[in-house]
Amino acid sequence: MTQTTIHSYFQQMFEDWVANGRFPESTVEACTPAMASKLGVPSEKFTFDSFVHSSQTPEWTLKPIDFGSQLESALFIYLPTPWSEFEKLENAIQVSDNGAVRQTIYLLDKTTWRNDLSKFFEQGEVSAFVYYLIQPPAFHQWICCIEQDQRVWVFAVYSTEDKILVTKADASDKGLLETQLISLINSNPWYGFVKPTP
Predict the structure, then answer these.
(1) What is the per-residue pLDDT across 121-141, written as a single tens digit (0 to 9) for each?
(2) Do the domain assignments include residue 196?
(3) Is the four-CA dihedral 15, 17, 20, 22 of positive or negative sign?
């Protein structure tokens, strides 16, 4: 798939989910040959599943982020151990490593965020994405790589019934891109909010 095709495919599917609540019933992923090349993988062999950690991994840990009274409990994000600096902003939490901002995490109301969706696609071209269904109908995970002026940003969107957690992650080189994909794919911040299926 070309970058234009992947961007259009993702935008159509993502906007349909936001506007109409329709979503894929299984994992969907796509990646341009150029993005796969950035990760050092032939495009025909690329899969986001290669970034999944299925067991405890050294130098990685679940870390709590606390949005205070906005939520009844903390959310947990999967991060490299050295990424241990957290700064609470007006509407977000920044995660840093030795002063370098690695991720900015926003907690938003679904309705507010829906109104600003058009701005999301003004940030650049989607060159890779993956969608995971966590638990229907409310819990979903979307991750996409957006290229803008020779730079890559990785975005993750985690949803619940009425809230959206959006992470914007800096991926300025291959090592950081791989690290961000591991972090965002293995994070399941709403895990404690998902109710068991009857």
Answers:
(1) 888 999 999 999 999 999 999
(2) no
(3) positive
